[in-house]
Design brief:
Oligomer: homodimer
CATH architecture of the largest domain in chain A: 3-Layer(aba) Sandwich
Largest sheet of chain A: 7 strands, mixed
Strand order of the largest sheet of chain A: 2-10-9-8-7-3-4
Number of helices of chain A: 14
CATH superfamily of the largest domain in chain A: Type I PLP-dependent aspartate aminotransferase-like (Major domain)
Shape of chain A: globular
Protein name (chains A, B): O-phospho-L-seryl-tRNA:Cys-tRNA synthase
Strand content of chain A: 5-15%
Distance between the termini of chain A: 49 Å
Binding site for pyridoxal 5'-phosphate (chains A, B): 83-84, 190, 213-215
Radius of gyration of chain A: 22 Å
Helix content of chain A: 25-40%
CATH class of the largest domain in chain A: Alpha Beta
Organism (chains A, B): Methanocaldococcus infernus (strain DSM 11812 / JCM 15783 / ME)
Enzyme class (chains A, B): transferase
Structural class of chain A: alpha/beta
Bound molecules: pyridoxal-5'-phosphate
Coiled coil (chains A, B): 131-158
CATH topology of the largest domain in chain A: Aspartate Aminotransferase, domain 2
Chain lengths: 381, 381
Amino acid sequence: MNLDIYKNLHRANRELINLNPIQRGGILPTEAKKAIYEFWDGYSVCDFCSGKLDEIQNPPICKFKEDLAEFINMDFVRFTHGAREGKFIVMHSICEENDYIVLDKNAHYTSYVAAERAKLNVVEVGYEEEYPTYKINLEGYKEVLDNLEDENKNVGLVLLTHVDGNFGNLNDAKKVGKIAKKKGVPFLLNCAYTVGRMPVDGKEVKADFIVASGHKSMAASGPIGILGFSEEFEDKIAKRSEKFPIKEIEFLGCTSRGLPLITLMASFPYVVERVKRWDEELKKTRYLVEELEKLGFKQLGIKPKEHDLVKFETPILDEISKKDKRKGYFFYEELKKRGIVGIKPGVTKEVKMSVYGLEWEQVKYVVESIKEIILQSHHTL
Amino acid sequence: MNLDIYKNLHRANRELINLNPIQRGGILPTEAKKAIYEFWDGYSVCDFCSGKLDEIQNPPICKFKEDLAEFINMDFVRFTHGAREGKFIVMHSICEENDYIVLDKNAHYTSYVAAERAKLNVVEVGYEEEYPTYKINLEGYKEVLDNLEDENKNVGLVLLTHVDGNFGNLNDAKKVGKIAKKKGVPFLLNCAYTVGRMPVDGKEVKADFIVASGHKSMAASGPIGILGFSEEFEDKIAKRSEKFPIKEIEFLGCTSRGLPLITLMASFPYVVERVKRWDEELKKTRYLVEELEKLGFKQLGIKPKEHDLVKFETPILDEISKKDKRKGYFFYEELKKRGIVGIKPGVTKEVKMSVYGLEWEQVKYVVESIKEIILQSHHTL
Ligand SMILES: Cc1ncc(COP(=O)(O)O)c(C=O)c1O
Ligand SMILES: Cc1ncc(COP(=O)(O)O)c(C=O)c1O
């Protein structure tokens, strides 16, 4: 066993501009880094525990749970290890084996895998339009639910991805919330890409459950998430153990016993503020789209952008790659030279990126860098 | 919403000697702290992911998985969020609803709650002797299994707590492993308190599954654990998603996507070394017991100690508390004055403690401090 490989673990990309959409919302503010020094040891959040992690007063985890519920406007909140674990908890506690769940065709893979783990059947709601917007046909939820009803299938849950991880399309959650309500089916909104970036109001959209991701969109270290739920489902979600009545079954007593929770908490004031500046983030995103489309990129997904995750079709990169001796890797390598990472190496037909949270000057630097790479390549070839 | 309470989060006990057994094995070495600086942002471990977290090569997570398997001598290892999540994964993937599991009466509450979540029935194996050793009757597993067989019950799993969290009793796992093997029932050994502190050899004790806890006993930030399993159960534990064949269902694709895993990895060389010095740790523990028994404490659990967690009956503290105006809190407060924490405030009949990982001088300081508190109190009263 060569133990030297575990010494001096280093993140090569740490100081660079990272355009990977999954990385942009999880960058820690200084406050959270300071808190890490305090709580990095094992079970250190448990110093003053009297039996249930989320009722600890010092650090103020108990109050935090309430403030988070207010932040997303849901009755209750619990901590989870991430959005996916929250989805599984909902499915496992409110559905019966072999129930059906209805979800959008842009749903994240973890929604499918959580359903598989909970032994549920999945039915998809498709697109209103495929290429180029891949817009989900939200009214389609009604039809799918009607059909399942006609077939006497038991539908346990309606799930909508608030913003998906492929096209960054924002869905009008209230539409689906209303349909679900009318049908009497519980409604889960997956806010992994929204809570912590943009304002989300659970009651307004008629969500029974909201899952969010700390490491993805709430400036926290991974893995941490939150699950918001309405009072109606408290007895199922927060069901207590018979033998250990203080412990909630679905959370195995206590979920996030450690550091990620501390960072989520320390970052919270920063997150509350940044959500208010969402409009400014959209301006950056739209500027990026406008400038890159001038270079021959084509934005996929709904226009204009209502989220920072952008997927582009990039025939121009594909064309260059055919003539560059580095093949598809030229784009990655040229960006890297300029201190920019987070674009998949070797991929040239489509690229995903986000400039969320970058300073305007950095956004402009990104645009100028891409412009330079493309013009230079055209010139050289 | 008063956001000021989340500013400058501080751990009051950070610099003090902490005798709480759940805290002693999770203290980070410097190497792990350095790694935290590198990887504190969100999904930062995922920079070079090609679809499955535990196959990432940079940082060397994939190799780490193999080295951990070698370390505990099991065929395979996966990362979990902790010991309890590992237990749930085993129960959920290999048992059928309403199956029976057999476990020891000293089992951790999370073993019961995991079984409840997996909708299983629990049958306990009792004590060979109650007070004062609370030694589990390991041969009793045979009888319990025979009885369940006679009643035509389906037994899905045998679980043994390697060292329990109440008395710190070490169980001879091989005995139970052999009984389980003979009966053809899979055997899970809960090593939350052993792997990372003392040598554990999964095959030697005939374990099909081993769960361990990073934040508890492997010098890692919480929450992180490992699940070791034998090849025989690979198809069930590591079952892949139908729609997303790279993703393992029970792990929801990827489990520990973040910082705790990094600390587990960075601490690994240190943990491998410290396990070799387990004998020295036992000497410290036995010295503690010897000295405190001179003061009127009485060690509960099996003698001599084979683990650092010690539970004492403390009639002497109870006696003092009746005359001290601070009541039961005098012990906590006097220790605190001396820079020692981790004893439950107000409790005087029984106390739990561990000096695991302290320097000999610190161990002696702890003993001298307790001696001083008791003699002084006796004198004053
Ligand atoms: C839409 C969506 N949902 C869920 C997830 C998973 O989040 P978590 O890691 O918190 O489970 C992601 C992550 O990429 C996502 O994009
Ligand atoms: C014997 C035992 N098992 C399991 C656990 C739970 O460990 P984890 O937090 O990793 O789930 C503990 C924690 O106190 C324990 O003492």
